[in-house]
Automatic annotation (TrEMBL):
Residue stretches making up the ABC transporter domain: 8-205
Positions in coiled-coil regions: none
Alphabetically ordered keywords of this record: ATP-binding, Cytochrome c-type biogenesis, Membrane, Nucleotide-binding, Translocase, Transport
Organism whose genome encodes this protein: Methylomarinum roseum
PROSITE patterns xrefs: ABC_TRANSPORTER_1, ABC_TRANSPORTER_2
GO BP: any one term: cytochrome complex assembly
Gene name linked to the record: ccmA
InterPro entries reported in the protein's UniProt record: AAA+_ATPase, ABC_transporter-like_ATP-bd, ABC_transporter-like_CS, ABC_transptr_haem_export_CcmA, P-loop_NTPase
Molecular function GO terms recorded: ATP binding; ATP hydrolysis activity; transmembrane transporter activity
UniProt-recorded name of the protein: Cytochrome c biogenesis heme-transporting ATPase CcmA
Taxonomic superkingdom: Bacteria
Length: 209
């Protein structure tokens, strides 16, 4: 892909829930090697904005473009990966089956399934049913999906939730590598990011009215 042309542009977005304006007039541009950190108090609309950016829900106003065209085109969904609250994993399938399923629907990434499981410290859990994993292990599995597929844009909703200290450091180092390699991340987090050398834009949704 031509990295020069890669750009996520949100223009004048608004989101209304039950007649309440969560945010309006929200615009930003995200380029390769940048992280956009969405901040704001509980209920300010961070998850709602991520779901709009994923194309799961339409904005009440405004437009989102990927590389100059509206996001409802197939290329955006191939370029983007979302890890949300529900972890996006099927609990009745094994760890290996879940990763094989993710791989079947995407371009292969930098790591094999075996390497990714090793990286997120789930080696040896291949045949374990997801329903038998702890909350932190489920989160590690959902993050392993990012490593086995090739997606320039990661959209992450509270990626540190349920992770222990070592897990948080691991994810931070994977995120750093992703952006240093030309990737982009939009994320929410109530946890302070330790990625000091990185180009981080911050938007506080509590103030976007
Ligand atoms: N499906 C829905 N239908 C109606 N209202 C909803 C729906 N989902 C969320 N909301 C409302 O929208 C508001 C914003 O929710 P959202 O989950 O986007 O906030 P958030 O900033 O991510 O919060 P938190 O920090 O608690 O995760 C809340 O008041 C919530 O009740």
């Amino acid at each position: 892909m031509d990295k020069q042309a890669v750009l996520l542009r949100a223009s004048n977005l608004a989101c209304i829930r039950d007649d309440r304006v969560l945010f309006s007039g929200l615009s930003f541009i995200l380029k390769p090697q940048q992280i956009l950190l969405l901040e704001g108090k509980n209920g300010s609309g961070k998850t709602s904005l991520l779901r709009i950016l994923c194309g799961f829900r339409e904005a009440d106003e405004g437009e989102i473009q990927w590389c100059g065209t509206p996001i409802d085109n197939s290329r955006y969904h191939a370029d983007m990966a979302y890890v949300g609250h529900m972890d996006g994993v099927k609990k009745e399938l094994s760890v290996l089956e879940n990763l094989k399923m993710s791989l079947a629907m995407a371009r292969p990434g930098r790591f094999t399934i075996e390497q990714a499981l090793d990286k997120v410290h789930l080696a040896g859990y291949d045949d374990t049913l997801v329903q038998a994993l702890s909350a932190g292990q489920k989160r590690r599995l959902s993050l392993a999906r990012l490593l086995i597929t090739d997606n320039i844009l990661w959209i992450l909703d509270e990626p540190f939730t349920s992770l222990d200290r070592q897990g948080i450091q691991l994810i931070e180092s994977l995120m750093l590598k992703h952006v240093n390699d030309g990737g982009m991340i939009v994320m929410t987090s109530h946890h302070d990011l330790a990625l000091h050398a990185t180009d981080i834009q911050r938007i506080d949704l509590s103030t976007c009215h």
